[in-house]
Amino acid sequence: MRKIVYHSLTASLLLAACGFIGTISGQTVNPSSGAQTQEEQSRATVVLPSGRDEGPPRVASRTDLYCAGFIQYVPFPTPAVQIIGGEQEQEQRAYAEGDYVFINSGSRQGVKVGQTFSVVRPRGKLTSKFTRKKGYLGVYVRELGQLRVVEVKENVSVAFVESSCEVMLHGDLVQPSPQRLAPSERSEVALDRFADPTGKQNGRIVLARDSREMVSRNQIVFIDLGAEDNIKAGDYFTVYRPAGGGRVTRLKNEEIAPTKHDGFESDAYAGGKYSAQSQRTKDFTNTPGLYIKDEAMTTYEIKRRRPRVPRKVLGELVVLSVQTRTATAIITRVAQEVHTGDYVELQ
Questions:
Q1: 3-class secondary-structure state, position 174
Q2: Which of 43, 199, 271, 318 is most buried (most C-beta within 10 Å)?
């Protein structure tokens, strides 16, 4: 009997609780009263994705565009605008995203609040054994990040580091921030690895970002073609290597064994004087009955006398920004690794 009463009492309590919760959930807030809970207010400000088309995909991200660096032929203006300090300079000498820095230019020099600047670091004149151009190609410049001016004094401004590619130091140069737009991706077609030359502008990869000597897809390189060669941002280039070119070693002849020699057979069994490692004997295709040389035909001789064969197509790249004598580019497709010194040709 006690068990029946206990279960009935428990069921009654549960039903009462459900009814109370239902009453609360069924209440509504009068809009005219303005009485909204904090949760409802925050829920009202949520913005869902609109589903709008963001445009065609780009070949490079913002980081690729503004951290790639460049080779500048035109000298920097003087006096130089540079980072001369920072809010926390007593504790730090290197600055990055989120820090406040001081630059030696203010209202007297025309600086305004909200103005953006790029921070760059020249690394030195660039010359290359690969280019056919005379003299140096320019000064290799690293891009370190971007600043936004938040307060302006007479000769000094305070700037907030909005983005950083690497740490910024006292003395790094400040210049107006460029406006760059990455080219749209093209519809990919099969890479023609035996494509004939186009006869258009032709140059070479003279440097890669971070001093890499072997690069691949989505990495930054610099070519020795620029505005003086009528190159513009968005131009696509084929990356290639001449047939037989690009050897790591300088050995031209890999055949090191003669065709025939007395040392190849034993005196007892005379298994044969012919080397198993040599190429064919010279003059074997001459008129029968003539003297046949016992010298080996070498790979070098075959290549020297052959007709032109297809070049080795390695991939393609697209130009992101153009300087006077050079251009900054990103590799978009590869068939194999690309080296500094490889050739490029405008498509």
A1: strand
A2: 318
